[in-house]
């Protein structure tokens, strides 16, 4: 009989360190727990969402009887992030759990907490958290952490301020190397412009050693083929050999620049260098052919790629379907969707959104509603974009029943953004005087841990005052107060305490 060896957890892992110092608590929770992790996550999430004072939060967490493991904390913070919960309450929860003896947060929890703070522009507290984590376990601060923080800063600050923030990480990360530099460049490509990324690259490249990933980041996203060719040339000159990602970036920029012939030449060059084009390569070609008005030739690529041993995925089919939707040839688009399903591939929300977009702009309510029914029947849940196409069309045509059906499906199945959809829904309900329905949806939203916008609250408040529903208004006001303010203005300068702590760190 073959012996099975179970590898013990690393002595450096957060779980090992916590269990070694709290064995009795861990074992009792492991053996006696009668609730599932999802129930525990829901319990703690509600505590975090509804506690408006630090003392109340701590007491409620202690009284809950829930073991606050790394996995549970990860899931709770993820819920807070996607529900747009109160960042100050989330930070209180993060600090409380992190200050327990022998406990260490996971990198996921840290990154999620920083994302929540950054989204609310609470940058002072972002740096405070990083300084605290640096002192406790510097290895939790990764290049992914760098990118998450810089992305939130870049959204509201200048390129210069973003680069200055990047330099602060020299005192925080274990290794301030090319990987961190790549995080900065990727952030600038996504949140600013390729031109900004190029300028910063040339300004800082002598302080780092650019690698293959550096150039792949800089090659992606260009609309100008000349700029992409320039980086491709510099890449070769520095002795960095391009890989399939590099070539795919070049193919993509040629296709978006409507230079299909050059894209095909790159594909031939790839084959000459024994680099087989993959599904990403062909998907770019399909998109490029659509831009030059050749949707039928693009559909043929789906067949041709199989001859080279590459099979189309959902994204490739979506690119071909998009071409027919743009050409308003919906029969061919539906045909491709059926063909995709016959190959065992399931259309995703992006697939359906291609049709929803056409129906929205053509004001075709019947087709939109029918497609929504088909989508739900197949088990493909709509995403936020799907919901917005639908709810805006329902508002335009004042279809309250359809709007409420969509909302009820969202509440029941948990898809879409409550924040965005509810604003349009409450506008519709208030415009038509549907106060009872608006109040019910408002309460449902808050029960799910989501804070309605202040604009929606004011609209419902006016209707309730006119209808003399003072008790109901008082109830809504009290529930809204639990969430606190969702608007946080960024400080123009750091606090002096935070500044001194950061500057005192050794480089």
UniProtKB/TrEMBL annotation:
InterPro entries: Mito_RNA-Proc/Resp (IPR051240), PPR_rpt (IPR002885), TPR-like_helical_dom_sf (IPR011990). The keyword DNA damage does not apply. Coiled coil: none annotated. GO terms for molecular function: mRNA binding. PPR repeats lie at residues 243-277, 278-312, 313-347, 348-382, 383-417, 418-452. The keyword Repeat applies. Keywords: Repeat. PROSITE patterns: PPR. It holds the Pfam family PPR_2. Belongs to the PPR family. P subfamily. This is Pentacotripeptide-repeat region of PRORP domain-containing protein.
């Amino acid at each position: 009989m073959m012996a099975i060896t179970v590898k013990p957890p690393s002595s450096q892992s957060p779980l090992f360190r916590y269990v070694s110092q709290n064995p009795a608590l861990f074992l009792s929770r492991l053996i006696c727990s009668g609730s599932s992790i999802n129930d525990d996550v829901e319990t703690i999430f509600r505590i975090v969402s509804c506690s408006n004072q630090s003392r109340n939060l701590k007491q409620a967490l202690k009284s809950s009887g829930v073991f606050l493991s790394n996995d549970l904390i990860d899931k709770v913070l993820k819920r807070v992030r996607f529900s747009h919960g109160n960042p100050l309450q989330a930070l209180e929860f993060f600090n409380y759990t992190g200050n327990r003896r022998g406990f260490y947060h996971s990198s996921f929890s840290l990154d999620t907490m920083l994302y929540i703070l950054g989204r609310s522009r609470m940058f002072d507290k972002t740096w405070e958290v990083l300084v605290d984590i640096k002192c406790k376990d510097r290895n939790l601060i990764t290049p992914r952490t760098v990118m998450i923080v810089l992305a939130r800063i870049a959204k509201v600050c200048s390129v210069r301020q973003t680069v200055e923030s990047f330099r602060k990480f020299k005192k925080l990360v274990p290794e301030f190397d090319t990987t961190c530099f790549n995080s900065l460049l990727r952030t600038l490509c996504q949140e600013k412009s390729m031109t900004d990324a190029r300028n910063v690259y040339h300004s800082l490249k002598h302080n780092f050693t650019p690698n293959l990933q550096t150039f792949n980041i800089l090659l992606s996203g260009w609309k100008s083929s000349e700029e992409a060719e320039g980086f491709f040339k510099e890449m070769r000159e520095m002795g960095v050999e391009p890989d399939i990602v590099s070539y795919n970036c070049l193919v993509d920029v040629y296709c978006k620049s409507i230079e299909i012939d050059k894209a095909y030449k790159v594909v031939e060059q790839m084959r000459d260098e024994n680099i087989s084009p993959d599904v990403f390569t062909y998907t770019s070609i399909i998109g490029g052919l659509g831009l030059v008005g050749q949707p039928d030739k693009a559909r043929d690529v789906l067949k041709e790629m199989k001859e080279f041993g590459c099979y189309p995925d959902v994204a490739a089919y979506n690119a071909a379907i998009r071409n027919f939707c743009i050409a308003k040839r919906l029969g061919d688009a539906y045909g491709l969707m059926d063909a995709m399903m016959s190959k065992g591939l399931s259309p995703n929300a992006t697939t359906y959104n291609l049709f929803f977009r056409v129906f929205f702009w053509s004001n075709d309510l019947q087709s939109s509603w029918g497609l929504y029914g088909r989508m739900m029947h197949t088990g493909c849940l709509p995403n936020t974009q799907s919901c917005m196409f639908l709810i805006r069309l329902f508002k335009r045509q004042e279809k309250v029943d359809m709007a409420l059906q969509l909302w009820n499906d969202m509440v029941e199945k948990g898809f879409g953004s409550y924040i965005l959809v509810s604003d349009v829904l409450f506008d519709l309900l208030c415009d038509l005087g549907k106060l009872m329905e608006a109040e019910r949806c408002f309460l449902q939203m808050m029960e799910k841990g989501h804070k309605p916008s202040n604009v929606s609250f004011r609209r419902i408040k006016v209707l309730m005052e006119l209808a003399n529903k003072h008790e109901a208004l008082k109830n809504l006001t009290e529930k809204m107060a639990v969430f606190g303010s969702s608007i946080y203005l960024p400080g123009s300068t750091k606090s002096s305490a935070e500044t001194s702590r950061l500057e005192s760190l050794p480089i």
